[in-house]
Amino acid sequence: MKRDNAIFDIIDEERQRQMKGIELIASENFVSEQVMQAMGSCLTNKYAEGYPGKRYYGGCEVVDKSENIAIDRLKEIFGAEWANVQPHSGAQANMAVFMAVLNPGDKFLGLNLSHGGHLSHGSPVNFSGLMFKPLEYGVKEDTGYIDYDMMEEVALRERPKLIIGGASAYSREWDYARMRKIADEIGAIFMVDMAHPAGLIAAGLLENPLKYAHIVTSTTHKTLRGPRGGIILLGKDFDNPWGKTTPKGEIKKMSALLDSAVFPGVQGGPLEHVIAAKAVSFGEVLQPEYKEYQKQVKKNASVMAQAFMDKGYKIVSNGTDNHCILIDLRTKFPDLTGKVAEKALVQADITANKNMVPFDSRSPFQTSGIRLGTPAITTRGAKEDLMLEIVEMVDTVLANPENDNIIKSVREKVNATMKAYPLFAY
Ligand code: PLP
Fold first, then answer.
1. Rounded CA separation 422/426 (Å)
2. How far apart are the CA of 121 and the centre of ligand 1, in A?
3. Of 222, 298, 314, 354, which is the active-site residue?
4. DSSP letter, residue 121
5. Is 173 a catalytic residue?
6. Which ranges carry the Serine hydroxymethyltransferase-like domain (predicted)?
């Protein structure tokens, strides 16, 4: 068949863009060739509604095997009792949990969106805010750390049925034990959405929320470094530190609820090619070098955060425990919005995104912050020395967001630098 130039030229163009630039979007990463091969395989042709061994279509014996491998590897990585690998995305994994444990109109408690929470944790334009009643906790203005006292106060007063931990722009470790205690006080379900730090958790570099939460969701494509998608997990539970053990039967009941919330609740046929790619990426997580990669992700982020602070930038919470750095531009450049900063950086082939900062004085379309992350650049082999160079380049652009000549010279440096950090084998 004739090559579809309209599309394949665009794919080539995107490949060039990825190769020549510095990728600092905290939620992005570069998957391996094998992960991409699995995604681009004949498994895309197969309908497999249902679950391994219990499908609504014939001919699923083969994809049953890859879905089972994905489940087994995922359980091994996080020490989970049960896993569902079918959610098409993180938001759909969260939607399935809402569907399994709440009724429309029920109250739940999540992190304020402008303090780092995700759309699916209660935004008024998302299913979570449209169909359920969101309550929120935030971070403390002086420290940038989660305000657990506020969380407890809202929880005791409002008695939500679900409490959600996890965020899209929060750089610090979570006190899952305290959250579980709060949930237990009011008999709420405690769910953690570990989409952002999942890779660091998988490598044992951050606390594993499965030890505390009733339900854990995640995306597979951020720090974890798999294909785009979602997952849901249940921990060994519920023998938590307070001895309130849930019988095995409860896990069975909850997993059955979650399975049917994913399919047929919010999805139809699973993407078996993506599930196979998830399995490949989970196999990579289980290799010893993965831990080294994640250690470097974390090291790079803390070196980068410190280098920005040394230059007088305000980093929310004054540093990072994970892969993510949230810069509050107002201290160093009071007139520079996140929107203008993002645009200037993109012109220099440095990709980052504008982001609200806690207690932001600007709208979500302008913002006073930018969010940076190290998972993607670390996959390309970057170490601390490159972080220092990147901080210099970002600083030059942010100090001169309207100066085309300076931006052009940074872009040339970015493109020359990235030649030494190979990305694709072809
Ligand atoms: N949960 C968190 C914490 C996220 O940051 C994101 C995406 O950024 C999601 C869920 C949604 O994932 P997806 O884009 O795959 O729906």
1. 10
2. 10
3. 222
4. G
5. no
6. 3-393
C-beta neighbour count of 204 within 10 angstroms: 11
* 243 pLDDT tier (thresholds 50, 70, 90): very low
The predicted model gives 304-333 an average pLDDT of 98
Cis peptide before 264 (omega within 30 of 0): yes
Helix (H, G, I), strand (E, B) or coil at 108: strand
Q: Which residue's alpha carbon is at the smallest distance from atom 8 of ligand 1?
A: 168
Residue 135 has pLDDT above 60, yes or no: yes
Among 95, 118, 126, which is best to mutate for testing ligand 1, by the most ligand atoms less than 8 A from CB?
Answer: 118
* Centre of ligand 1 from the C-alpha of residue 189, in Å: 20
* Rounded to 5°, angle at Cα 20 from 15 and 25: 80
Query: Distance (Å, rounded) from C-alpha 94 to C-alpha 183?
Result: 18
Distances (CA, A) of 133 to 102, 124, 158, 162: 10, 9, 11, 11
d(CA 139, CA 143): 8
Query: Across residues 324-342, what is the average pLDDT?
Result: 98
Asked if the ipTM is above 0.90, the reply is yes
The residue to which tokens 């609820």 are assigned:
257
Q: What is the pLDDT of residue 240?
A: 45
> Between the CA of residue 46 and those of 50, 63, 228, 280, what are the distances in Å?
12, 8, 18, 18
Query: Average pLDDT for residues 367-374, to the nearest whole number?
Result: 98
Nearby residues of 412 by Cβ (< 8 Å), 6 or more positions away: none
User: What is the side-by-side order of every strand in the sheet holding 369-373?
Assistant: 314-315, 324-328, 369-373, 353-355
Please choose from 89, 219, 371 the residue to mutate so as to test ligand 1's pocket, defined by most ligand atoms within 8 A of CB: 219
- The pLDDT of 245-263, averaged and rounded, is 80
Q: What percent of the chain has pLDDT over 70?
A: 96
Q: What is the pLDDT of residue 247?
A: 53
Token pair recorded at residue 306? 């410190």
The binding site for (6S)-5,6,7,8-tetrahydrofolate comprises 113, 117-119, 363-365
Amino acid at the residue 16: Q
123 lines ligand 1 (CB under 6 A): no
Distance CA 193, CA 169 (A): 12
